[in-house]
Amino acid sequence: MMSARVESVSLSPSHAFSKAPAEAIELVEGLGVAGDAHAGATVKHRSRVAKDPTQPNLRQVHLIHAELFESIARLGHRVGPGQMGENILTRGVDLLALPTGTELRIGREAVVRVTGLRNPCAQIEAFQPGLLAQMVEKRADGTIERRAGVMGIVLKGGMVQPGDPITIALPQEPHRPLGPV
Questions:
Q1: Name one GO molecular function term (predicted).
Q2: Predicted structure pTM score
Q3: Which residue segments constitute the domains of the chain, with CATH numbers given?
């Protein structure tokens, strides 16, 4: 059994689709990734700011599992660290199966609370034609499966770098499934 760990970390000071890989990132309590355009206590995603800039920022940190990139590579989609806009690329964590409120201890100090799923958008298709179809699937029962990672808020700050372990603490039951945020 592979232990859960950080595969890579990325950030971008501008609102670009992709983020640049880094040697380490600093998670700041209540704000997100230091130096990243999406850091802040209130929402930073441009379409959400336009609707209500006072909303709490439930999207301070974006996490994607490396296994997703491997599965879509078999379908011809090559995606590298940071290219889908994630701050933290994980390995050995089934992020999409976590319940809302799960806490991830990352490295020595940082703690991120999972708030929900990233809602895949048209930018994914613009980045790589055909990729959006791999990130969203309509199930037979009419529900939508979103695969583009999870979002979270920083409960406790700290430095995060590739190779750092990830420990998972599930919330009290009953568990609530992740929904888009």
A1: catalytic activity
A2: 0.96
A3: 5-169 (2.40.33.20)
